[in-house]
Amino acid sequence: MKNLPDIQRADVNAILLTFAAEISLEQNRRVHHVAAELRANHSPESIRSNVLELVPAYNTLMIYYDFINIDEQAFIDALKQVLSSLSEPEAGAAQGELYQVGVLYDTSVGLDLECVARRVDASIDDVIAMHTKPEYHVYAIGFAPGFAYLGDVDQALRLPRLDSPRQKVPALSVAIAEQQTAIYPLESPGGWNILGRCAQLPPLAAGVRVQFYSLTRADYEQQRQAGDK
Amino acid sequence: MSGLRVIEPGMLALVQDFGRFGWLAQGYSRGGPVDEHAFLWANRLLGNHFNAAQIEITLGGFSATAQASMKITVTGADVPVSVNGNSVPNWQVLQVNEGDKLAIGYARSGLRAYLAVAGGWQVTPVKGSCATVRREQIGGLTGHGHALVAGDSLTPEAVNNSSQAVTGQRVKPDFIPDYTSKLVLDVMPAAQFQQFAASAREVFFSETYQVIDKADRMGVRMKGAAVNWQGAGLVSEPLPIGAIQVPSDGQPIIMLNDRQTLGGYPKLGVLSWTAKNRLAQATPGSKIQFKEADAKPLQEQLKQVYRFFSVACQQAQNLRS
């Protein structure tokens, strides 16, 4: 890589790589590109046996390493070598798996659907069209198990978080906030604008892609029952 | 029927092993003992593997009936422990027999006690660990993140007769922390430390802070002189355990084992291992001072600690899947 990420100690046993300080697909691709390289079997022995766990986020990658086995400086040196000999990810290179996720966009489960439509000055159908159009990219998983930060939401559909978060957002709610959209995996507090609900949670991991499509109630019920089996 | 039957769980009793490693990228926190020091001593006393499951008891008020004979120990917070009403020592291997009633009263100092059994408690792991993280609905006896309730039964793993646990064996008093002593916590600068104004860092290291009652296994909030952040908003990034986050009101929040995996507040650094363990035992109202510490000695110290307790770092099993 030409522009090496910033390399900093995050803890006694962890190093944080920071790429350019912005939310962009390009920087996030670099994060996952480096993560994939560090996972690869062809990485040098000092990396392969000492990397314990990787945590990719938007523009950062946390690397937990076996600090009992390798000295911090030796590990950083090995890391720098891997990074400098690594090529940049190809622009528009093939991404992770694409999941098609059906959503019931209905005011009975899309608690903010009407309000969102009003605020962006569009019809509910327009909101559905805007939300189902992009192929979203999983930037990171965090906040809660399986909570995927998906982006980017259509410019015309970007809204801030609710003024006051809900105490309980139902599980499988599909919601938006600013340039991000997500599925709440479990019932939890949350301040995002809820558009609908999906029937099943796809196995999302950082780097995979998601496209939403609109379900009829009958299809939603059918998928839900299929998921229970 | 060969274990320990819970009569009263007290305020909060959770099954914890050393933690769930390898799942941060899926959004699962580590869980595990917030006071590793007390936890590791309990397993060592009993001759257990460092990862053997224990019960983490917050505040106290726990009681249970033994349904078989077993060797146990209670470490951590200074809680009164009794067997059939007779007071018994903490930080020492105890023999309990079938029908005995074990009672752990409320902590005189410290916050969390660890109840361990020779062999460890037998609990089915979920994602490689039985650590209970309630918010994530994972781990514990049920696998779904529940705290222990009255009527729950825990069985020790089988131990052979040559088990190293010797009744009466105890931790030397030198190694038992005085949880009433003044808390001066070592902080290793990291993350946005350099981006805080020198004056803000000076406030943080010179003022005294107080633990407030918004404290749980996720994090501990402080009250004191505000630490001002004048930088821009951050993009959420991975959040280490022990990280000192500074939200916009300038009142530090220190993250413990159940922290969310990503966080967007600026951070001054992370607590040392010893400091994090001590903070885990600090009750609301405790006064705290922070001291800047070099990383190297802290790294060496923790290496020695982990070697002493035979803690092995494990590679995430799904790293190369």
Automatic annotation (TrEMBL), chain A:
It comes from the Bacteria. Residues 5-205 form the Carboxyltransferase domain. SUPFAM superfamilies: Cyclophilin-like (SSF50891), PH0987 N-terminal domain-like (SSF160467). InterPro entries: CT_C_D, Cyclophilin-like_dom_sf, PxpB. One of its GO terms (molecular function) is hydrolase activity. The keyword ATP-binding applies. Keywords: ATP-binding, Hydrolase, Nucleotide-binding. Pfam families: CT_C_D. This is Sensor histidine kinase inhibitor, KipI family.
TrEMBL record, chain B:
Keywords: ATP-binding, Hydrolase, Nucleotide-binding. It comes from the Bacteria. SUPFAM superfamilies: Cyclophilin-like. Residues 25-309 form the Carboxyltransferase domain. The keyword Nucleotide-binding applies. InterPro entries: CT_A_B, Cyclophilin-like_dom_sf, PxpC. It holds the Pfam family CT_A_B. This is Allophanate hydrolase. It comes from Pseudidiomarina planktonica. The lineage of its organism: Bacteria, Pseudomonadati, Pseudomonadota, Gammaproteobacteria, Alteromonadales.
